Amino acid sequence: MGSGKVTIVALLLCLSLGVIAEDPYLYYNWEVTYGTVAPLGVPQQGILINGQFPGPRINCTSNNNIVVNVWNKLDEPFLFTWNGVQHRKNSWQDGTPGTMCPIMPGKNFTYRFQVKDQIGSYYYFPSTALHRAAGGYGAINVHSRALIPVPFDNPADEYNVFVSDWYNKGHMTLKKILDGGRTIGRPDGIIINGKSAKVGEAKGPLFTMVAGKTYRYRFCNLGMRSSINVRFQGHPMKLVEIEGSHTVQNIYDSLDVHVGQCLSVLVTADQEPKDYYLVASSRFLKQELSSVAIIGYVDGKGPASPKLPASPPVNTEGIAWSMNQFRSFRWNLTASAARPNPQGSYHYGQINITRTIKIVNSKGQVGGKLRYGLNGISHTDIETPLKLVEYFGASDKAFKYDLMADEAPADPSKLTIAANVKNATFRNFVEIIFENHEKTIRTYHLDGYSFFAVAVEPGKWTPEKRKNYNLVDATSRNNIQVYPNSWAAIMLTFDNAGMWNLRSEMWEKSYLGEQLYFSVLSPSGSLRDEYNLPDNHPLCGIVQNMPLPAPYKA
């Protein structure tokens, strides 16, 4: 009997006996502490997880249950968010200030979530204050289940590479600057996995490769504001995955990774066995910042050449170059993702749009202090997490829904500071347009979902621009860049009930208001659509002494 038939017989036997095996659990215990770090040679207070920066890697498989017990050993409140993990029916675990009370100093909280029907490259990071500028982040690698085909051979190994800009001022000083109504300005340098080096300075290889073998590199940009281009000396990259989507496997000499984004490439060790540089350089800054790391061949002889591969074009030409690279990213329609059916079996381009939300970002002054906003609303977190307020039926006591309209006002720079919560109809298919009138690039991330990034174009959006949409093989992802004086369009179905954060991944912008929350409520109030408040979920603010609402039922 073939192995497939054995599996089916075993499953039928389990069903007949009423036995259904739960998906595997992975357990982690993390201590979050301060520690001295000096990525650019200037000692400052960093945030470590179990003494590490970057933090421990979560290496899991689709549908695994993840349990992370977090001890906050800092002297301030703290939260982790799990960037890219969709938390189906479970925004309680999303780890944003709008969904959870923070973990207080000296306390612990145990996150429990499932990477349901997902594969891909993701990460976790602190969502509180300016902690992201101090580290506290790490990788979440979600692999396909054993029986699901992957459109490339298993690599010899896989490596996580975190690239980011870095500030020498430290997170506390950066927070004081923003709280004082000023910008944090340009970063001081670029780091690769928490370190920075110039040509000739790097000591020892970051990673090693065996000649003739192929390796998977998972790149993520955890910076505060800078897009970063990555490239290897003498080794082209084959793009295979972007944020949970298998891609058409194009070859690139260099790739732009914008803030908050992740992608995977395959690199084959087919050159002379010696050392080579991995280069990370900033994009769209007046003065380019860069860093290198050594990728060494096992038993290789000879140092890396001091001649680095050239940076991509800059200025207007550089934006056009980057935009064209985005257009080259295509969904692999025949590959399976987390499920055995091909990705292309979902025909998103044939679904009728029920709502268009056009969002214009802006900068303004409120009370003489710098703020950022979306459609004239500059978000501020309130005392009680929005999801808790909503669950306890106390929304009228804390915030108003839909202060932000679906269209931008005539002057979006006239900002109102308020909790920015928009209602979204459960299971509606929507189109969201981002329009950036400013001179700096933006990236936006949506928790709880992946969306189809159907277009990025220069100028302003009009309905006629829909003819330029990619309605066949746009990548399904969770982060989209919007270039200066340009627009981007995404499409998605609001099929995941909960309270979900849409934010600028430029943390200065997000911290000063360039974000919102979508409230997606199931009309049935059923466990089929959303989980109940977890027993261990802390209560705070106005709901702390309220009686618990009646739980959802199946």
TrEMBL record:
InterPro entries in UniProt: Cu-oxidase-like_N, Cu-oxidase_2nd, Cu-oxidase_C, Cu-oxidase_fam, Cupredoxin, CuRO_1_AAO-like, CuRO_2_AO-like
SUPFAM superfamilies listed in its UniProt record: Cupredoxins
Keywords: Glycoprotein, Signal
Top-level taxon in the UniProt lineage: Eukaryota
Protein name per its UniProtKB record: L-ascorbate oxidase homolog
Signal peptide per UniProt: 1-21
Family: Belongs to the multicopper oxidase family.
Entry annotated with the keyword Protease: no
Pfam families: Cu-oxidase, Cu-oxidase_2, Cu-oxidase_3
Annotated GO MF terms: copper ion binding; oxidoreductase activity
Domain Plastocyanin-like: 32-145, 158-289, 390-523
Gene3D superfamilies: Cupredoxins - blue copper proteins (2.60.40.420)
Statement: the UniProt record of this protein carries the keyword Plastid: no
